[in-house]
Amino acid sequence: MTDWTSSSVVIRHKVGLHARPSVKLTQLAKSFASTVQIAGTPEGPWIDAKSIVKVMAMKVKQDSTLYLRARGGDAAAAVTALAGLVERDFDEDKAHAASG
Amino acid sequence: MKDKVGIVIVSHSIDVARGTADMVRQMVGDTVPLAYCGGNPEGGLGTDVAKILKAIDEAWSDKGVAILVDLGGAETNSEMAVELLDAERQPKVVICNAPIVEGAVMAATEASGGGSLEDVRRTAEELSPQ
Fold first, then answer.
1. Global pTM?
2. How far apart are CA A31 and CA B114, in angstroms?
3. Bridge partners (DSSP) listed for residue B10
4. Does residue B124 fall inside a structural domain?
5. Measuring CA to CA, which residue among B22, B14, B62, B66 is closest to residue B40?
6. Residue B103 is part of which domain span?
7. ipTM of the complex
8. I need a surface site. Which of B17, B39, B50, B126 has the fewest CB within 10 A?
């Protein structure tokens, strides 16, 4: 079994990893064949990033660090893509502006 | 869209059904077949087998359809609607034992990722108290 590809990223989103960002993260994770996991600390517990129920139950707060890891053929692409989504604030800039 | 499991929302209130569908569309997007119904034939609170059958038709997918319901009659009328489907369609429809709003969003998220009917049902039901 190959090693994990890992990364970490700070959640800047106003209310943390709430409903809509959780859905986006899960959908993106599902687009990769690799096993993709996330955690709130480098030691885990690691949860399946493809499980919307588990991701939402994490209730990750704003300014906390999200740890990502993946294992499989497209692991590097998966970690890069997920970290990118979080760094871009889940592509919700416009929604924020609209809600003031 | 027909390569994703469809979602049907059945509430006693058309407003609850429509609002739940709005949340699914906004949070999950429009890649999943989705239909909703609510209210009795007279336009009051309740559910109606004919409306449920129509909604199942609208959201039909060869991968199956997951129904989310609110209270008692919504479930029994949905079961009745499923029994009225063609024999080959019946095994492809499930009624999820999950809260209607949260279950619909979770089920649609799973469906949008290409999950099977069983995956979709399990995801919705993962929410319920064990």
1. 0.88
2. 9
3. B37, B69
4. no
5. B14
6. 6-118
7. 0.81
8. B50
